[in-house]
Amino acid sequence: MVASTPAERPEPDGSDVDSTLPTVSETSPTVSEIGEFAVIDRATRGRVQAETTIVGPGDDAALVAVADGRVVATTDMLVQGRHFRLDWSTPEQVGRKAIAQSGADVAAMGARPTAYLVSLGCPPATPIAVTDGLTDGLWLEVAVSGGSIVGGDLVQSGQVVISVTALGDLAGRPPVLRSGCRVGDVVAVAGRLGWSAAGLALFGAGIDALPDVLAAHCVPSPPYEQGPIAAAAGATAMADVSDGLVADLNTLAHASGVGIDIRSTDLVVDPELLQAADLVGEHALGWVLGGGEDHALVASFVSRDDVPQGWTVIGVVIEGDGVTVDGASAPNAGGWDSFQR
Ligand SMILES: Nc1ncnc2c1ncn2[C@@H]1O[C@H](COP(=O)(O)OP(=O)(O)O)[C@@H](O)[C@H]1O
Ligand SMILES: Cc1ncc(C[n+]2csc(CCOP(=O)(O)OP(=O)(O)O)c2C)c(N)n1
Ligand SMILES: [Mg+2]
Ligand SMILES: [Mg+2]
Ligand SMILES: [Mg+2]
């Protein structure tokens, strides 16, 4: 491998050094003014814990009851300028997205989220209206996904960074792995595709239109409950779509040692995406195939009869290696790679 010289590296576009904070109000004190423990207090006081929380925030660690003797565990982080911008999203939307990103991974194992640990880094000048907004958003999404926030961390950093660890319960079922696709299975999707990418394109072009599409970029809507439903229906493999449909199906194909062929005519391209595509001069199907961050669920099932309500069959598992669309490779649907953009 040849190390790239500075001259070969792409110029930074500035997006990853964004450290702007919204001026929420002239009167909001900052995090440094009220101090770490007061901010933590505001993030935890009065919030209702799930039944499985034995010890919640306030001690050295939380204690969580594990119903079936195993716990699903996953973590993801959001970095300002890379995963969100505070001039595009409200703090509440960022909080919701942070929970959704990890909660969707729990659902993709076939489990139900039970507990979250939230670590926050922020500059000292962060208004507490921002940390309060984040807290509200985190708890709003927890109310959708299930579970509760049992602890976390708060540190000073140059930009806003949020890391969410989620735990989940499989209710005695086996986990649904990425490696379980078998030739002849059908592949189905639950949840929206392409919306987040369409919103990102609108934001990027500075077009203030289609508010539902912009909101879908700021707050994904993972179909949390469909994870356990698919597992109970016998899903053979599953993942959430964070990097892009083709990219995430590729992880299933590679882990399972198979090919997956998607039929483009079976993909739902919502009319709002066609409108957005007209506005920015891009292709809506490209967003559906290559856009990430909607956190839809994709899964394989032995037959069409196993596919639960709320899922749309979009393809089949075939012999081969990787993902094809209508039998051909999809070179423009590579999806997100944290170090390529
Ligand atoms: N720094 C790391 N150390 C250990 N495991 C990691 C690390 N980063 C990612 N992984 C693991 O690699 C796998 C793929 O990660 P990722 O692509 O982020 O999955 P997802 O898109 O579901 O969040 C996951 O099982 C994750 O736990
Ligand atoms: C400012 C900004 N630029 C670009 C994007 C697009 N984007 C950022 S991360 C990502 C993919 C998912 O992020 P990743 O860190 O890979 O999450 P994971 O797959 O681990 O869930 C996408 C499409 C964005 N959300 N915000
Ligand atoms: Mg991840
Ligand atoms: Mg995932
Ligand atoms: Mg990713």
Automatic annotation (TrEMBL):
Q: Give the EC number.
A: 2.7.4.16
For binding Mg(2+) 4, which residues are annotated in this chain's numbering?
60, 74, 105
Q: Locate the residues binding ATP.
A: 152-153, 178, 242
Q: In which pathway does it act?
A: Cofactor biosynthesis; thiamine diphosphate biosynthesis; thiamine diphosphate from thiamine phosphate: step 1/1
What is this enzyme's class at the first EC digit? transferase
Kindly list the positions annotated as binding Mg(2+) 2: 76, 105
Check the record and name the InterPro entries matching this protein.
PurM-like_C_dom, PurM-like_C_sf, PurM-like_N, PurM-like_N_sf, ThiL-like
Q: At which positions is Mg(2+) 5 bound?
A: 243
Annotated residues for binding of Mg(2+) 3: 60, 105, 240
User: Positions of the region Disordered?
Assistant: 1-29
Keywords from the UniProt entry:
ATP-binding, Kinase, Magnesium, Metal-binding, Nucleotide-binding, Thiamine biosynthesis, Transferase
Q: Which GO terms describe its molecular function?
A: ATP binding; magnesium ion binding; thiamine-phosphate kinase activity
Which residues does the annotation say bind substrate?
83, 293, 336
Which reaction is recorded as catalysed by this protein? thiamine phosphate + ATP = thiamine diphosphate + ADP
Q: Where does Mg(2+) 1 bind?
A: 75-76, 153
Protein task:
Catalyzes the ATP-dependent phosphorylation of thiamine-monophosphate (TMP) to form thiamine-pyrophosphate (TPP), the active form of vitamin B1.
What does the record's miscellaneous section state?
A: Reaction mechanism of ThiL seems to utilize a direct, inline transfer of the gamma-phosphate of ATP to TMP rather than a phosphorylated enzyme intermediate.
Full protein name: Thiamine-monophosphate kinase
Q: Which organism is it from?
A: Antrihabitans stalagmiti
Name of the gene encoding the protein in the UniProt record = thiL
